[in-house]
Each structure stands twice: as structure tokens, then as C-alpha cells.
Amino acid sequence: MGLSKPQRTEIEDLLKQQIRRKLADYSPETNNMPFHVRLLGKDRMALFSFIQSINTTLGTSVFEQVAATIARPHCKRAINQYKEFNTTISADAQSEIQQIMDDLRASRKKPDKPAETSAILAVAQTGAIKKVKRPRIDLFLESNDGIEYYFDLKTAKPNRDEIIGFKRKMLEWVAIRGAVKPKPKIFTGLAIPYNPYEPEPYDRWTFAGMFDLPNEIKVADEFWNFLGGKNAYEDLLGVFEDVGIALRSEIDAKFASFAPKP
Fold first, then answer.
1. What pTM value is reported for the model?
2. Cys-Cys link to 92, which of 126, 191, 224, 243 (CB 3.0-4.6 A)?
3. How many CB atoms are closer than 10 A to CB 216?
4. Do 34 and 108 contact (CB within 8 A), yes or no?
5. Residue range 152-189, pLDDT digits in tens
6. Cα(first)–Cα(last) distance of the chain, in Å?
7. What is the distance between the alpha carbons of residues 108 and 131, in angstroms, rounded to a whole number?
8. Is 81 left (phi over 0), alpha (psi -120 to 50) or beta?
9. What is the largest CA-CA distance in the chain?
């Protein structure tokens, strides 16, 4: 299936806009690294700083926009930065979530997302109803058969403490949705846009014990092909490469200005 020509164009335009904006606004922050600058050169340090900035932009905004673009033709709704989630949760659901977390952390139970979801939804409208802050949801999809998908896009190598917090968040999203809709068909999970270990499989051991891996985490091609069908991931890599080639001269010219004068 892969990406259509309009999708490719939309993604290319987004990437070019983001890179050119970064280039226009870029000011190297190397004064606090005098040893590095003298060892490697101002131009290389400027490029390193720029790459870090681009990495942040990809992780905080670009990937979720690209994901919505890819998913949109295949779903009833596909929205990044979803802001329509409700803001209430039941005390009984919070207690159930705490019990699940305690059991997982003590290894009394293995992760089982379908069972955890059912247990939370069973008490999602019982007990005191509390107000909570509206969750930040990176990507929301509603499939044509009514399944609601709520994704949190994450960096490729989260640490153990972050993973525990992610798990609680995924369970809380189920409870918050269940507070206003008794029996939603719902998926909450993590999406990791790329595999830093490729060609080796993604190292998921840090998630083991907390996450039901097949039912809560999608990595690299699993995620992009889920959104856009077979070959979506490879097509997307091709789009990024094409944009990189198209902008290479602009990037080179920008950082040549930081090179030492002969």
C-alpha cells in the first residue's frame, strides 16, 4: 500500500519547512564548550548542535504530524495533539490502577493489557469522580470499525523510571475515557518511531515486566505500517532521504560559514 503521492508531498513540505526554519533561526551555542570547540572546530560543533535541535523537533512535533498524515486515509479520524479527551477519573479506577502497578512492580502478575483494560473499565464510573488535568495525547486515531487508538510517541531509549510512568499513564487514559464512555473499544500504547539498534531487533527488555509488549508497543516499521499499510515505513524513509538530498546544499552553506577562515 505505502504512501500516496499527495502524502509524500505533504510530508516533504513539512520537513522542508521545519529544516529551513531551523536553519534561518539557528545560532550555535558553543561558548559553554570551549574545549570541544577548540578540539573539533566551530563548524563541527555548530552542526552537532543543529542535529540535536532537529532531533528534538522530530520527537516533539514532526513525527506525530507525519503519523496523522499517513493514517488519515485509512481511518475515520486521525488527529495529532488531540485535545478532546475528557478530564475526569473515578476513585475506584485509580485504586485499580494502583493495584495493577503494585502487582507488576512486585512481579506478582505478568502484563496483560486486555485484562487490565477490562478491570479498569469495570470500575471506571464507580466511586467518587475526580477532576484531572487533560492528558497530552500525541496521536489519536478512530478506525472505521470504531476502535479508538491513543498513542504516546516516545524516544527510542527510555529508562526504567520513565517506563514505569509511561505504563501508569496508559492505564490512566483507559480510566479517563471510561469515565464518560462505559465500554469503549480502546487501545492505549507507546509508539517508538525508529529502532536505534537496526538491523538488530529493538531491545525491549527494559519494557518487560511492565508492558504487554504485543498489545502496547509499536516500534519502527510496526508503527508506520500499522498506520499506512505495507511499505509505509520504507516509503517514509525514502521521503526523508529525498528531502535531505534536496536541502543538502542549503545545510552545507549554512555551516560552512562557521568554518575557520584560511
1. 0.91
2. 126
3. 19
4. no
5. 999 777 888 889 999 999 999 999 999 999 899 999 99
6. 52
7. 31
8. left
9. 74
